[in-house]
Amino acid sequence: MDKFTILTGVAAPLPIQNIDTDMIIPARYLKTIKRTGLGSGLFSSLRFNEDGSDRADFILNQTAYRKASILVAGDNFGCGSSREHAPWALLDYGIRCVIAPSFADIFFNNCFKNGILPIALPQEVVDRLMDEASKGANATFTVDLEKQTITTPDGESVGFDVEPFRRHCLLNGLDDIGLTLQQVSAIDAFEAQQQTGQPWRWAR
After folding, report:
1. Are 27 and 198 spatial neighbours (Cβ–Cβ below 8 Å)?
2. Which residues have C-beta within 8 Å of that of residue 77, sequence separation ≥ 6?
3. CATH (domain of 22)
4. Which of 9, 21, 67, 133 is the most buried (most CB within 10 A)?
5. DSSP string of 40-73?
6. Rounded CA gap, 77 and 5, in Å?
7. How many angstroms separate the CA atoms of 116 and 109, rounded?
8. Would you say the pTM of this structure is higher than 0.85?
9. Where is the Aconitase A/isopropylmalate dehydratase small subunit swivel domain (predicted)?
C-alpha cells in the first residue's frame, strides 16, 4: 500500500454521528472484491438524488470540497457491519485521513490495513477542527504522521497518538502482505531446511 508520511489537503466537515459502513458504501456495491472503482459509490445515499444527480447540500459535492483528502467527522465513525469495502471506498475517492472523537473497532483496524490514518481526538478538539474545516477551500490541513501533528489553516498544531506498530506500518507502506514479505529470507531458509530434513512434506 502507499506510504503515509505527510498529507496536506482540504479537510471536509461531516458533523454526523454514527456514520455506519452502509452509509459509507451501501450494500449494493459489495458485489466486487476489487479495491478500485468504489469511490463512485462513497456516501452515495447522501451524495446523490434518486435520479443520480448530485445533492447540492452534501459537503463533498460542494466545489471547495470535491477533492478533499481529509474528513472531520462525528462520533462513532465506521460503526455497523465489518465490510472492508468502506475503507476501500474512502481510499478510492481520495480520503487518506479521518478525524473523529471515536471509531468502531473493526473499521479502525481496517483503515490501517489499507493506508488510511484514523485519528481519534477529544470532542472539544474535533469541534475546533470542524470549525476550521468549514472554511471551504481555505480548509487545508497538514497531517504529519512522523511528528504526529495536525496543522490547521491558522497555524494551530494539534498532537495525536498512534500505536507505534501501526505508525511504522503506515510510514513504510506495509500491509499484512508487505509485513510477510519482509520475512521472505527467513521463510525461504525454513522451507529449504524442511525440504532437506523432512522431504516427505514436499512430496507430490
Report:
1. no
2. 19, 98, 100, 102, 103, 104, 107, 118
3. 3.20.19.10
4. 133
5. GGTTHHHHB-TTS-B-TTSGGGSGGGTT--EEEE
6. 23
7. 10
8. yes
9. 1-124
